[in-house]
Amino acid sequence: MSIHLHELAVTTTGRALVDVTDLQLHRGRPVTIVGESGSGKSLLAHAVMGTLAPELQVRGSMTLDGQYLDLAHRATRRRLWGRTLALLPQEPVLALDPTMRVGGQVAEGAATWRTDRRQARTASSALLARLGLGGEVRAFPHTLSGGMAQRVAFAAATIGGAPVLIADEPSKGLDELARAELAALLRHHVETDGVLLTITHDLDLARTLGGDVLVMKDALVVERGPADEVLDHPRHPYSRRLLAAEPSRWSHPWMRQHPTHTTTAGGRGGSRDPDAVLITGAGLGKSLAGKTLFHDLDITVTAGERLALTGPSGSGKTTLGNVLLRLLPPDTGRVEHSPALAGGRLQKLYQDPAQAFPARVPLRSAFGDVIRRHRCDPRHLDTLLGTLRLAHDLLARRPGQVSGGELQRLAIIRAVLLAPTLLFADEPTSRLDLITQEETVRCLMDQVDDTDCALVLVTHDQALATAVTGRRLTLHPSDTVSTGTTEATHPRYTAAGTGSAVAPVPQDLPGGRPRTGAPTGTRLGPGPTRRWRTSC
């Protein structure tokens, strides 16, 4: 099995989004594409799959084991989905049907689904167990963490046995252990004579996979070669800048030193100013799907403080954040908010930014609503777009027509437009390349620093947590919680899988089949739906 792409180009209104003259994929030789957000990496993958948005024009050809395919004729690849070509999408939470249980969704992709559904379900359960999700077979997607949803999507993409796997940002939202396990799965696909094309911002994953690496910038491939050469001895200036943008090497004025705060199992986090407490959580406990996430936990967030919530994927970081924001009620304990958080001064950046934007509304309209409702200065929007290197014409598109990295930066812009008193950022840079991550965090932290806004950051990136925050609370899949340099035993604390309580915006499936669902701000799952008040 081999794939050869010839003169692939994706354009919109005459502007080139992808311009790759030649790309070859072979069995047993992984190819990884890295580069800046919005450079066309994901569009290249969708051009191969035939799933580009209809507003985008594509030309070029693809030779698949000697079979010629015109990339402009998108329907010709549909018959190859699942059996020859498989795509692990960049937004797994949107690729999963919110009304179906996890095991059934994965089973539908099995080769035996039409002939022997019992065997398909057995294969689904076995694959999920290999991915560490054996206890989530009957879970709904909205109860999963971002990392767990990624693994479910991986199972659904690979259960059909397609020899060609395209993995679009497969490691985002995963902790170090889960990322290593994912890398082992991808390498197993290659070692079993599979074809692998990986698109990622994770340079460590690119090194682990080996093979060949391509670096993209502004729709073009600026450098390519063996992974060790490109990642250890880059030739192109952009490649060198990309490798130099690790958070451990940052040096910015807002990286000020914070006093050390400590929290004990029955105690409360220290505060520089007890009279400036924004959020108080006392005796908090929460369980989901019969699993205890945290119990008897006390925590405070003060004005201007920067707190990181870290821990493995599925340990309950997002759930704790949602409890503190009062998007989820605690099973035990109470959460109190300062009056300073009223009137839109409490904002959330979602782990999956598509959850925060209406799927079928142009971004210009979504931003216009925020500006009118909160009487923001529209010139500030233009300034922030320029700072984050986002073209103004992106606002004419719908959320599904921009890259994940671009959409995350737009979500950050929308949040800081309101000058919040407290910002909860759930993996805010997980979709960004290292350069764009540094620029985006710098823009975000400049705003946070100028207004002395409090920040609660959820991240798997320990270097990012160290660079940005002054206090850290780590959730472990065991019976300990640690904060700062102090680790405290929490006898009845265990961490288990859960995620955002707000369901994703459903989108149409490939081929135009509509998916049932509800708009952003609606809880989905068993029982009646309930509308949440949106954050802005």
Identify the CATH homologous superfamily of the largest domain: P-loop containing nucleotide triphosphate hydrolases
Q: The CATH topology of the largest domain, please? A: Rossmann fold
Tally of separate helices: 15
Please compute the radius of gyration using only Cα atoms: 23 Å
Q: Tell me, what is the CATH class of the largest domain?
A: Alpha Beta
Overall pLDDT metric = 82
How many E strands?
22
Structural classification: alpha/beta
Instruction: List unreliable stretches of 5+ residues.
Output: 258-272, 485-536
Percentage of residues in strands: 15-25%
Order of neighbouring strands in the sheet with most strands: 15-16-17-13-18-19-20
**Multimerization state:** single chain
What does the main sheet amount to? 7 strands, mixed
Q: End-to-end span in angstroms?
A: 49 Å
CATH architecture of the largest domain: 3-Layer(aba) Sandwich
The 3D shape can be described as globular
SSE diagram, text form:
Elements: E1 2-12, E2 15-26, E3 31-35, H1 41-49, E4 57-64, E5 67-70, E6 85-88, H2 92-95, H3 102-107, H4 117-130, H5 146-158, E7 164-168, H6 176-191, E8 195-199, H7 203-209, E9 212-217, E10 220-226, H8 227-232, H9 237-243, E11 277-288, E12 291-302, E13 306-310, H10 317-324, E14 332-337, E15 346-349, H11 363-374, H12 378-387, H13 404-417, E16 422-426, H14 434-451, E17 454-458, H15 462-468, E18 471-475, E19 480-483, E20 486-489, E21 522-523, E22 530-531
Parallel strand pairs: 3-8, 3-9, 6-7, 7-8, 13-17, 13-18, 15-16, 16-17
Antiparallel strand pairs: 1-2, 1-4, 4-5, 9-10, 11-12, 11-14, 18-19, 19-20, 21-22
